[in-house]
Amino acid sequence: MFLKSSFVLSVIAAASYTCQAQSQLVASQIMASVINMNGIEANFMFAPLANNGGAQVWIEVKSGLTKKFAVSPTGGFEYHIHVKPVGPNNDCVATGGHLDPGNVGAAKCTAAKPDTCQEGDLSGKHGELKATESGSIPPQSYNDKYIRFSGETTTIAGRSVVIHNNGTRVACGNIYPFDQSSSPSTSAKGDSSAPDGQVTSLHSGTSSGGQVVATMAMGVAGAVFGALMAF
Fold this sequence. Notes:
This protein has three helices and ten strands; from the N terminus they run ααββββαββββββ. By secondary structure, the chain is mainly beta. It has one domain: Superoxide dismutase, copper/zinc binding domain (Immunoglobulin-like, Sandwich), CATH 2.60.40. Strands 5-4-7-8-1-2-3-6 form an eight-stranded antiparallel β-sheet. It has a two-stranded antiparallel sheet with strand order 9-10. Strand 1 and strand 2 (40-48) form a beta hairpin. The longest helix has 11 residues, at 5-15. The chain starts with a helix and ends in a 7-residue tail after the last strand. The relative contact order is 0.26. Residues 57-167 form the Superoxide dismutase copper/zinc binding domain. This is Superoxide dismutase copper/zinc binding domain-containing protein. Residues 1-21 form the signal peptide. Residues 181-208 are annotated as: Disordered. It holds the Pfam family Sod_Cu.
């Protein structure tokens, strides 16, 4: 399975309004997550910023997050980095709790004070993925200075991205190096998890986001990241 080449174009478009940070991007250690289950198709990319400055995050949702499907009164879908990879048969429950090496807990998170949030609570820090009539969401990008690419308990590598519908885990995909040709290890990178409330998961779907071969090309700060992604 490959990421669609259209994602590359979406990434470039999303990056256009964050050019002030592009000069800080690190060309190595780029991580990606592909979600394709239960009608939800979404792509995530995490590019390290220099001097351990966190990550620039790109997100594209191609389908599945419709207003009809959304349960939350806010009309949004939460999404987080969880401590463990996706289980067999796309089991999102197997991903464990949120990545929370600082043990801050979920209840304390406010977007105005991101330092009160778990490292993996992306929607808490940056807002939910808002449902649309079509289910697709325009590409978006932001910087998150709390994301880490190293450290046994802090790295996002080998973990997973999980999308929730009012607490229920509805789709998930592994986080892997962009040039990895096989699924990452099913062992967790530490046990810095946090309680996750409801852990109901829908298991249907056709593929795990970890089984990906990807090459990216992208001019950022004069560096070419590479680019051919197609399912």
